[in-house]
Amino acid sequence: MKAIKTAIPDVLIIEPMVFKDDRGFFMETFHKQKYEAAGITSAFVQDNLSLSQKNTLRGLHYQYPHGQAKLVQVLQGSVLDIAVDIRRGSPSFGKWISIELNDSNKRQLFIPSGFAHGFLVLTETATFNYKCSDLYSPADEKGVLFSDPDLGISWPQGDYILSEKDTQYPCLCDIPEDHLPKYV
Fold this sequence. Notes:
With 184 residues, the protein is mainly β.
């Protein structure tokens, strides 16, 4: 397993070791000691799986005050994955990273608590798997508008399929400070 730092140091790209032969492949998708050695010390308590069609855009979601670190991976298909630092006081506040996750590169992305997260499906369908460090809490569910002009996220052009909820989220600058996590 290889952990690669991104432009936002707390966000890590994980390249698992993949063992291929004529039968297929094998890889570890999580190994507590190896991930801790890479700096990922979150205790994951919930796994989620979603299937989405092409041009589905999910996000940008976060929970507060019960934040969730996430370890995300695409099992089938391809997505453009986005993580936005929304931690008040962070040197990278409002900055984002993007990465293509797909079933060919088998990469994972570790997104710490305090980040908004979203993805756009690039293939006909995509199966998206993610581990969370805290349980889903509907009362703590929040979001940032995916098209926030101040963030300037470089989404590919297209007619996106969004939930009504995802189109109604505020821009980051309009979210009250007491609804944002604090950088520690």
